[in-house]
Each structure stands twice: as structure tokens, then as C-alpha cells.
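Residues determine shape. Take a concrete instance:
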Amino acid sequence: MKIAIVGTGYVGLVSGTCFAETGIDVVCVDIDKKKIDNLNKGIVPIYEPGLDTMIEKNVKNGRLKFSTNLKDSLEGCEVVFSAVGTPPDEDGSADLKYVISVARELGQHINEYVVMVTKSTVPIGTAKLVNAAIQEELDKRGVKIPFDVASNPEFLKEGDAIDDFLKPDRIVIGIESERAEKIMRRLYKPFLLNNHPILFMDIPSAELTKYAANSMLATKISFINDIANLCEIVGADVNNVRRGIGSDSRIGHKFIYAGVGYGGSCFPKDVKALIKTADENKYSLDILKAVENVNDRQKSILFAKISKHFNHDLKGKTFAIWGLAFKPNTDDMREAPSLVLINKLIESGAKVKVFDPVAMEETKRKIGGMDDKIYYAIDPNDAAIDADALVLVTEWNEFRALNYKVMERLLNNKLIFDGRNIYEPQEMEEFGYTYYSIGRPTING
């Protein structure tokens, strides 16, 4: 079986590589010639554990190819996935110009039946627009070529994307014809053999499922962060509260860890898009609006703690920031809480020394023009030298085993702000540190 995937961003590249891993012949298409040239040289544009090795293997085995030409890639393809970006417009709605562009190009070049599958996260009703765009191009050509449109949203977690794809909790497919369903069942047959559930449904339900899933997870994060802030006011410990509510099977332990807010490519964009969709249909998703407000506020929580500790005078102070990516095991800086913190510190006259295991270059690209105000450290200890405080933003594993005695020599003050609650207050107290975390009592060393 042969398929094409248009778009070699996070979703497209991971999906194409994993399909190739199951024995499917895959061609990944992108208009970015430099990106395709690099992929053909083995240079992977994103960081995802294990992806580069899997790409190399499947390219070597001839099951994975990269191209800038969709027309030439279509021959023999039974399924074409659209995995292009859907960036948010200023009003929060998803920009569908790239999705529609792929649909039009498909209509211009197909010569036999194909299933056009939207893999990108798109608003409800997008399939109708895709269908109309393909049909319009076929009409312009004066040809009658059958095709189907389907929705197959992705549920990949950055940092665990390969396992998520190959061992999915569920596979959601919105479909309208038996012919398309048979093809999609054949495509996902390796997953069915391993008893991973595949859920066929109508297309609007499939389109909404992705937004609803991400919005529910975002809601859990904002909820526990709101509770954490209340914990600090009333003298409770959010970790104890989390264990107490997480033991309820209806709630569970996942996504109820207090921190500095969610970021990344999915949650912020999808929450905004779902709110916008509801508003357009004259319905207000008040819970999600509150989720978004809480998250925006939470991204400033570390700065508020830092500012208060230094009596709102940060001029000339230096802060070591450990962790820049929005989560561990990725270099994704989109909507990262670290960006909010860095901007606020610099605006207050402070200096920052930053370190992240993989996101340093992406941070430079994202921030731009501020390199003279930021020191990019070569390792965690380098960032800590002569800093007035250590600020933990992203919970990479290499930050978890803190060497208190080394930090005491490097830092100007035994002062730590922990935005992910990865350190133990008792240890901080034992070693004489002043320690701020999220939703837990402050330790005054």
C-alpha cells in the first residue's frame, strides 16, 4: 500500500515515518525545498526521541521518501494525508489556507480514486470545504474522478510521539463511505492486530473530538494550577491535594500536576479555536474561557514570586533559568512559559542566563534580537555561576538530582524558584535554601 503525506512538520513527519515502520510505502511532501533536501541528507528538522533513527532505517529500506512534488508523488497512492499547519488567526480561529491549498492541488492532479484525509487539527466543517475545493478543481478540468474525504485527527504527545502513534489509546476516523472505510481499515490493520481501538464516526464528530480532548486536558491543568494558588493562600500543599483527588478513578492522576501553565503547539491553539467556533455559533464556552485566563495568569506566577522576594526591584539581578522548551523531550518553544518569564525579567532590568538540553537554538530563533541580553550557558552549572537565584521552568530529568553543595558554591544566594515542583521542600530546608514552588509552603532558609 502506498500513501502520501503533505506537510513535514511535527505531525506529518512522525506520522509518515511510523506508517513506513508498519510496512507502508510513504512519500512525505513539502513545499519547503531546503527542508526536503535536508531530510534526504538525514537532517531531521525537529527533535523527537528516536525519530532520526527510525527515519534513517525506513529511508534505507526504501519505504520512506521525501519530495517537493505532490503531482509526481500521487501515482499509486490510495490515501493522501494533509498534515499542514493550521496557525491561529488574530481572532483565535484556525487559518485553513494551507489545508485548502492542498485540497486544490489534489483536485488538479489526481487521475484515480483517492481518500483525502485531514490529519491537521481543523475546525468542524473543514471536510466540507476540502470536498468543495477538490470538486471545484475537478470541474475546472472537466473530469469525473471519484474521491472521498475523511478526518483522522492525531493525538501525539511531543516527546512520546512515536509510542503514541505505534501504540495509540485510540484511532479516530471520520468517514462518509464504505469504500473509504475499507481502505482506512487496511491502512491501520497493523494496529488492529495489536488490539488498539479504532473508532469510526461521522466527520464532524471526528473533527470535534481532537479539540474536545485537548481542551479537557488543558482544563485539568488550569484547574490544578488554580487550586495550587489557593493552596498557597490557605496553607495547604497541592501535592497532597493532587494525591487525594487523583486516587478517585473518575479523575485520575494524569494532568493534575501544578506548574507554570501549558504551552506548545496544541493546547493554546486548540482551546482558542474551540472557543472561536462556539462564539461563531452564538454559544459561549465559559469554562474554556476561564481555562485560558487561568493559564495566561499562571505563566506569570514565577515572575510574581521572584519580584515579591526582591521587593519588586530586579535591576542588576541575574537569574539562572533551567529549561526553556514548553515540556521535556522536545525543542518546541511555541507558547512556552519560559518566554513570558524571560521577557518580564529583562523588562524589569534583570539579566538572564539560560540552559536547555535541546531548545537553545530554537530559543534564539524564537526570541530574536535579544541575544545581547541573554547568556546562553553551555550547561546547567554554567548558567548558575554568580546568579542571584536559580529558576526551574522545564522539568528535564537531568535537573531532578540537584547537587545542593555545588549550587551553594555557584549561586550568589541559596535561593531557588521551582516552577514544576520537582524538588523536595524538606531537602531544601535541610540544606538551608530559600525555596519557592507552586501550591506548597515556602521554605525560608
